[in-house]
Design a protein that fits this description.
With 293 residues, the chain is mostly helical. It contains 15 helices and no strands. It folds into two domains: 72 residues, no CATH class; 206 residues, MetI-like (MetI-like fold, Orthogonal Bundle), CATH 1.10.3720.
Length: 293
């Protein structure tokens, strides 16, 4: 029995390891290939990124997927960071869009979730059900209404046309509400008996109890909005305001080394944020999903 148990665990571990390698391989290829010279990239992937001259083009030569470069080169990073300010300018465009969305979304979701937690009437149940419906709808469905509202309010072609809808995202409210409902009611009643006001209950009890969920919301909101593409294309006609996520697709095939370098720089903020808060992210999602109500 023990041998069968260890054998089955070994098989499961091997399958999980293979899936982990498959998931992480594109990221590793992007990072390592960003240190390859343009000549080496052309030699390995030239057939993939060559210009198409006919409707039916097939790759006859084998593409060489190399994980380790023959010679490490920092030319691409030198070009991106020092010689091509457009890339860094787009990077800061992404930061100026995402940071206000994350801060505002966390603040609004915290207040809304506390309201749904403390108020359990039928009206609030209907409102929370509407939040769930909005959460299930893809963002592409809301692009046209957002465009019309932004045009009517005069916010079209400004960053606020993206920031304001992002602040009021329903998923964060849903996640924090489910997490807050795991706080024992006896704890709230004890605080009220001691004379605590609603503001003190909110700041001294609920917020400390929900640190992991709040961090989870911040991470998920950052990753989601850091990768935005449709919103800037539709709501911002000024190309100079587009974030780096949109600008990456405009790098031509003769600058593959720059594309790898820019993609690596683009991945650093969400990767660091995820690695730093992985424990809180798992805890927040797990506890939120295990609570009834």
């Amino acid at each position: 029995m023990k041998k069968r148990h260890y054998f089955s665990r070994g098989i499961l571990f091997l399958i999980a390891f293979l899936f982990a390698v498959l998931f992480i391989l594109p990221t590793l290829l992007t990072i390592t290939n960003s240190f390859m010279s343009q000549w080496e990239l052309s030699a390995n992937y030239g057939k993939v990124f060559s210009e198409v001259t006919s409707d039916n083009v097939y790759i006859f030569e084998k593409v060489n997927l190399k994980l380790i470069p023959d010679m490490v080169s920092f030319t691409q990073y030198f070009s991106v960071l020092l010689q091509s300010p457009d890339y860094l300018f787009k990077f800061w465009n992404s930061a100026f869009l995402v940071i206000p969305i994350v801060v505002g979304q966390v603040a609004m979701a915290t207040f809304a979730a506390y309201t749904f937690y403390r108020c359990r009437g039928r009206v609030y149940q209907i409102l929370f059900f509407i939040y769930i419906i909005l959460m299930l709808m893809p963002y592409q469905v809301m692009l046209v209404p957002n465009y019309l509202v932004a045009d009517w309010t005069g916010l079209l072609d400004s960053r606020w046309s993206i920031i304001l809808p992002g602040i009021f995202a329903p998923f964060s409210v849903f996640l924090l509400t489910k997490f807050m409902r795991r706080i024992p009611e006896a704890l709230i009643e004890s605080a009220k008996i001691d004379g605590a006001t609603e503001w003190k209950i909110f700041t001294r009890i609920c917020i400390p109890q929900c640190y992991s969920a709040i961090y989870s919301v911040a991470i998920l909101a950052f990753i989601d909005n850091w990768n935005m593409v449709e919103q800037p294309i539709i709501l911002l006609s000024d190309v100079g305001k587009h974030p780096l996520s949109v600008y990456l697709s405009n790098i031509n095939t003769e600058e593959i080394g720059l594309a790898f370098a820019v993609a690596t720089i683009y991945m650093i903020p969400p990767l660091l944020l995820f690695l730093h808060g992985e424990k809180y992210l798992v805890e927040g999602i797990t506890h939120s999903g295990s609570v009834k109500g």
